[in-house]
Write a structure and sequence with these properties.
With 77 residues, the protein is an all-alpha fold. Helices cover 65% and strands 0% of the residues. It contains three helices and no strands. The N and C termini lie far apart (42 Å). The model has no long low-confidence stretch (mean pLDDT 92).
Length: 77
Amino acid sequence: MPAQDAPVPQDPADALAAVVALRRLADQLEDAAVEQAMRAGWGWPEVAEALGVTRQAVHKKHAKRLIAAGVTLRRRQ
C-alpha cells in the first residue's frame, strides 16, 4: 500500500501515537522472530540477510537479550 493510501488519523497526535505503537509492535515481532530463528539453528549472517541489515547490526541489537533468554548462539567457524 503506497504511503499516500495509508489511513492516517486526522489528529497529528493520534497519527504519531500510531507510529510509536507500530514501531513497538515491529520491535516485538523482530525480537520474537530473531529468537525463533536462532533457536532453530540460524546463524547471524542468515538472520541479518533476512532482516536486510549487517551481521554486526543484528548481533549488537539482539545478542545480549538472546544470551539472557538462554539461547545458545552459534560461533563463527
